[in-house]
Specification:
The complex is a heterodimer of chains A (438) and B (308). Chain A has 438 residues and is an alpha/beta fold. Chain A has helices spanning 4-17, 19-48, 82-91, 124-145, 150-156, 174-211, 215-219, 224-261, 270-279, 282-298, 301-329, 340-358, 365-370, 377-384, 391-419, 429-437; strands at residues 51-57, 72-77, 96-100, 114-118, 164-165, 171-172. In chain A, strand 5 (164-165) and strand 6 form a beta hairpin. Chain B contains ten helices and 14 strands. In chain B, the strands form three sheets. Chain B has a six-stranded mixed beta sheet, with helices on both faces. In chain B, strands 2-1-4-5 form a four-stranded antiparallel beta sheet, with helices on one face. A four-stranded antiparallel beta sheet of chain B has the order 12-13-11-14, with helices on one face. The chains are: A alpha/beta (438), B alpha/beta (308).
């Protein structure tokens, strides 16, 4: 008799109706958004402050290069000693004091000559900003001293960007690789998150019958395989429900909060933006943006979406079945905590293989092999697919994944059935083999 | 077929431990069958084999003439000794779920549950969670779930544990009624008085072997000791006792009487006729008590287990 739909229904409904599940479903996005809002608000406060930086240039070489900007005011000090300047900038509550000592020649410039004094250690972006300004100016001065025409140098700079095209005429760029890598990593981490959040839930669900002592009643009417499968699918569906609610609810909340407070929560990474502005003049940035767009367009989107859904689901099911197997082997939840890490290992490995190997050689031996090994294939294969993987390879890998999942569920069921009969006796290897047989 | 269940030389090992050693039992249709034995004798393992929770290493089990297979699950109702229910599920939902697992349709299960809930006067519990119920209340639900799908074979492992005397009686009556309606019952317990009261057939397991089985009445005949409990009023008890000791094998007995009688157990040999004893006794005084001692299941249990 096939009880699978019945079991799935029960598992799903009990999970979804559970009070703590409902509370977590509602509370988690609220807490998340609240945290993000606080961080965003604070970092904005920080950024609104205008910094004053005092500059004491005893060399007289670089005074002209400091132009006040929106967030930084430069205060040029003259005709005073270093100590006086320090005292003054401290009094004026300046962010810091940049001191450039007298230089005999530009060649002699070193750390000894240029120093930044401040109350607290200065931010990284500020220092690199100052450094790049100084570097540029001093280089120019040096070039001038050698009687070299700077304009000529600037004019003769050539920018090369090698266009890539496959023999079939498909265009790509080096940014493609980053887009592809990004996709793989995103998939990997999503799988990660899902497993961390819901793996335990499956394990607990498998232990449930043992702790409530209903196991013998259930096992005398249902095959353990069906029970396992039902639990995994039911709990996963509950997890997906929760995740979707989080996405929708979280998105809504985020929009509302953004509108109310007037902070764009979607772009909180201010320091990176600053860096971007520093390193790239507008045209460069546009150029990158454009090639990023083509990079996205160059991904085999349809294939990716299908592969993502299938590999994600199957990968998740496989890891869930491992949790189920652990749940089947132990008597209570306290014994299970330690198993979390070993299960995550293959996933971490997969992400690293993806980053270090697939990007370098997407169709090399290592990448190919790991895209077939079931525990790593959900991540590695997803990373490989953007580079173009023959359909048969994807199918074979998927079949291996599903096969392994079924095997693990079946094995978990064996452990489960025998586990209830062992009365705390430790099974020998001989018995383990016998378990599998019957 | 007169036997509903036939277990034929079933063996089961757990590692080096032999849990069942070629055990055979036959359970006649419509009977109440007592499965007895000390702790660790293999009763639960045998029950699990019948329920297909455990696969035997050897031997065969027939239910109603067919080799036991997963399709028979719906023909068996099992109340295990180790029992529980989903704690956070509501009583009604849970009972429906378990009934559907046994192959009942939802509407059918609902109708039957309603009947049983009214019968046992627990209708008001439908929307309660198990964790809100007492142990005895949960036991009632378990009992209902066990019998709901009207199985041919009912297996109860210590069905009365956790019940107060009133509820235990209620359950006992229900079991007897189910038997009247045609069910066959296997009954495993350590409470010998309920075996005495309910069982038609028994089997005794000890150290993984079956050491005794048959109709309860036959077993008792087999164990009869030809001993009579006697109370007799006499003027001189000491003299009478000496006289009797010379003729019969006697020992002191202890039972309650109204007068100060001489109380003895008198053992006869196989060939003696109890009427001769009675005649002899009436010639000596007024006989107030004359009863054949029938071995109780308890005695048989202890005696057999000790001898093995």
């Amino acid at each position: 008799m096939n009880h699978l739909p019945l079991i799935i229904k029960r598992e799903y409904l009990t999970k979804v109706k559970n009070k703590s599940f409902i509370i977590m479903t509602i509370l988690s996005p609220i807490i998340m958004i609240a945290l993000i809002a606080i961080v965003a608000y604070l970092s904005q406060l920080n950024n609104d402050k205008v910094r004053t930086i005092s500059i004491l240039d005893e060399s007289g070489l670089v005074q002209g290069i400091f132009e006040n900007s929106e967030k930084t005011t430069y205060h040029i000090l003259e005709n005073m000693s270093l100590d006086e300047a320090k005292a003054l900038s401290r009094e004026a509550a300046s962010y810091g004091l940049l001191h450039i000592n007298k230089l005999d020649t530009i060649e002699a410039v070193s750390e000894e000559h240029i120093k930044f004094y401040s109350e607290e250690s200065p931010s990284l972006t500020l220092i690199s900003n100052l450094e790049s300004k100084l570097e540029k100016e001093l280089t120019n001065i040096k070039l001038k001293q050698q009687d070299i025409d700077i304009d000529l140098i600037n004019a003769s700079k050539v920018r090369i960007d090698i266009a890539q095209e496959s023999f079939e005429g498909e265009k790509s760029s080096k940014l493609d690789s980053f887009a592809k890598l990004g996709f793989g990593i995103a998939a990997g981490y999503l799988l990660f998150m899902f497993i961390i959040i819901y793996g335990n839930m499956i394990m607990r669900s498998v232990i449930e019958e043992k702790t409530s002592r209903i196991i013998e009643i259930i096992i005398s009417s249902v095959k353990p395989v069906q029970l396992m499968l039902g639990k995994i699918i039911g709990t996963s569906l509950a997890g997906i429900t929760q995740f979707i609610i989080w996405m929708i609810f979280g998105g809504l909340l985020m929009t509302i909060v953004s509108l109310v407070i007037g902070i764009n929560l979607f772009e909180t990474s201010v320091p990176q933006q600053e860096l971007m502005e520093l390193t790239s003049n507008g045209s460069d940035f546009n150029f990158y943006f454009e090639s990023f767009k083509t990079a996205l367009q160059n991904l085999p989107l349809m294939n990716l979406i299908f592969a993502f859904i299938l590999f994600f689901i199957c990968g998740y099911l496989l890891y869930s079945s491992l949790y189920a197997a652990i749940g089947a082997a132990v008597d209570n939840e306290t014994d299970t905590q330690q198993f979390l890490v070993p299960i995550m290992m293959p996933l971490i490995l997969a992400v690293y293989i993806g980053i270090f190997t697939v990007i370098e050689d997407p169709h090399g031996t290592v990448s190919t092999v790991f895209s077939f090994i079931p525990l790593t294939s959900p991540v590695v294969m997803l990373m490989r697919i953007p580079f173009g993987v023959p359909l048969w390879q994807q199918l074979v890998s998927l079949l291996i994944l599903i096969g392994t999942f079924m095997f693990t569920v079946w094995f978990a069921a064996k452990i489960y059935r025998v586990g209830i009969l062992m009365y705390g006796k430790k099974p020998s290897y001989k018995e383990l083999i016998k378990w599998i047989k019957y | 077929m007169n036997n509903l269940l036939e277990v034929n030389e079933v063996s089961k090992n757990f590692g080096d431990f032999k849990a069942l050693n070629k055990v055979s039992i036959t359970v006649p249709k419509g009977s109440i069958f007592g499965l007895l034995g000390p702790n660790g004798a293999g009763k639960t393992t045998l029950i699990r084999v019948i329920n297909q929770i455990t696969m035997p290493d050897g031997g065969k089990v027939h239910l109603d003439g067919e080799i036991l297979s997963p399709t028979h699950i719906k023909n068996i109702g099992y109340l295990p000794e180790e029992r529980g229910l989903y704690k956070s599920m509501k009583v009604g939902e849970q009972a429906l779920y378990l009934a559907q697992l046994k192959g009942l349709s939802k509407t059918e299960a609902k109708a039957r549950l309603k009947y049983w809930f009214e019968r046992l006067e627990i209708g008001g519990w439908w929307n309660k969670k198990i964790q809100e119920l007492s142990k005895g209340m949960a036991q009632k639900i378990q009992f209902v779930v066990t019998v709901l799908h009207r199985p041919k074979l009912l297996i109860f492992d210590e069905p009365f544990s956790g019940f107060d005397p009133i509820n235990a009686n209620l359950i006992k009556d229900e079991i007897l009624r189910l038997r009247e309606e045609g069910a066959t019952v296997i009954f495993s317990t350590h409470r010998m008085e309920s075996v005495e009261e309910l069982c038609d057939d028994i089997a005794l397991l000890h150290k993984s072997n079956k050491i005794l089985d048959g109709k309860l009445i036959d077993v008792k005949r087999q164990y009869k000791i030809n001993t009579y409990e006697v109370g007799i009023r006499a003027n001189n008890k000491a003299v009478l006792e000496q006289d009797l000791a010379a003729k019969f094998d006697i020992s002191a007995a202890n039972f309650k009487t109204l007068e100060d009688e001489l109380k003895l157990n008198i053992k006869l040999s196989e060939t003696d006729n109890p009427n001769d004893l009675l005649n002899y006794l009436t010639s000596k005084g007024a006989v107030s008590h004359f009863v054949e001692l029938i071995p109780s299941v308890n005695d048989i249990f202890i005696q057999t287990v000790k001898n093995n």
